[in-house]
Amino acid sequence: MRPMILVLLLFAPVMAWPYTVEQMLAPFDARVLTAQEKRLLQTGLAFSGHYNGMIDGDWGEGSQRALERHVQTLTGETVVTNMAVLLVTLETFALIEEEGWERQHNSTLDMSFLVPTQALMAGAPSDTFANMTVRGRSIGYSLTARDGPETAGFHDYALRQAVGVPYILRRPLVWVTSVRTATGISLYTRSDFRRGRWSTIMVSARDDDAGAFAAITGSIAPGHAPAIGISPGRLSAGIETLARVLAEDEGKEAPWLRRPPGEAGGMTASTPAPAMGFGSGFVVSSAGHVLTNRHVVNGCRRVAVDGRPAALIAEDRTFDLALLRVEELSGVAPAVFALEPARLNSDVTVAGFPLPDLLGGLNVTRGAVTSLKGVGGDGINMQISAPVQPGNSGGPVLNAAGQVVGVVVAKLDAGAVARLYDDIPQNVNFAIRGEIAKLFLAQNGVDPLVEMAGIPVAPEDLAETAAAFTRLVACN
């Protein structure tokens, strides 16, 4: 799973204050990080076994000492540099991706906590608890919501298992009991008073899963707690700088993960606009509106769709979407969006104009939805296995009925990852979710056509459907 750590490079926005090459070896100062960046580091330090505290973004002495211990373990250095923290960030992101760790909100308990979404399994049935286990680990979860006396009994049970001195916290709205049992199991019991009842989460694990145990217990919080994952800030910008440094050392072009090369725009504002770029788009209204990626048209002096002049109507940096209008396309039947989101493992077809100088026409590839989220639980994007090439960005992702469920946005640079990590990722590509595209259109005065789930059509007919509304977008 190590190559997935490079995905975050694509989503790092341009900042006025990224780590520069000169700052890589400077001493680390946590005060410049956002709370979400600190939560990510705390999570990684917990998994490493060096941090046993709340994953709350509050960077105190405990967090700093844990970071110093971990960096010394990794590098042998006693001074924590910005470079070392970026390495910890990469390590943490790889670990989170491997089992799909996310902090999720449980609506029954009204509590949030880390779970490994790709390895979570149902546990033994119980009349009292909802039990879960983790594939390949000794970790167990037990969840329930009960009244006060019954909840007190759960904590009494934990205390009866204790060997040595237990950790006990008793406050009006939260109880915590953490013990070590005679069988070598760590058992953590936490109860929060939520919505008139006590919500209880019990977590258990053996010593070989002590790091994951610390991360889970440190992540528990009442209500909807903030997500734990990569976010825009110094760390993501610094990793992009690190990528350039390593690439320059090899004498090669910089990006590890990028939007398909050859397209207009580019990854950062400091990247010079190419003399000519290209991408794809598709008609979304009978008034001649065309949807594409913002990075396809960003920085262009002129934009053309199928050779016709196009006006930039709206753009959104966060969504990486742009809306164009072409007078000559008025009256063209627009694409139809699916009412429901794409489902995991559902078939998808990508249409676009990759490498137009070489291939010279509409290109169609097929694959599946391989993840419903993007990097670190990002809800804007989804992952697809349909191959994409330079020029595919902005093209439609269609379901089996020919309805739009996404917009192509990025690909993983497999060759660069292989050179650096001795592993070749297979078909790791990304699309903006259809729900986000519909929201963007509605926000900018376009009412997209939406239909209920349709009947699957033959692949040949689906290609003809896509050809009717998919267009080549050129920038110069």
CATH names the topology of the largest domain as Thrombin, subunit H
Stretches with pLDDT under 50, minimum 5 residues = 1-18, 249-275, 414-425
Mean of residue pLDDT values: 84
Strand order of the largest sheet: 3-4-5-9-8-7-6
Portion of residues within helices: 25-40%
Radius of gyration: 25 Å
| CA-CA gap between termini | 38 Å
Roughly what fraction of the amino acids lie in strands? 25-35%
Instruction: Count structural domains.
Output: 3
Q: Which structural class do you get from the secondary structure elements?
A: alpha+beta
Provide structural commentary.
The protein is α+β, with helices and mostly antiparallel strands. It has three domains: 2-99 and 233-250; 102-222, 3-Layer(aba) Sandwich (Protein Transport Mog1p, Chain A); 258-475, Thrombin, subunit H (Beta Barrel), CATH 2.40.10. It has helices at residues 8-11, 35-48, 61-75, 82-99, 148-160, 210-219, 234-250, 294-297, 356-359, 414-421, 434-443, 459-469; strands at residues 101-106, 111-116, 120-122, 130-134, 140-146, 167-170, 174-180, 186-194, 197-205, 221-222, 257-258, 277-283, 289-292, 303-305, 308-309, 311-316, 321-325, 336-338, 347-352, 363-371, 381-384, 396-398, 404-412, 429-433, 449-451, 470-475. The protein is globular. The two termini are 38 Å apart. 46% of the residues are buried. The model is unreliable at 1-18, 249-275 and 414-425 (pLDDT under 50).
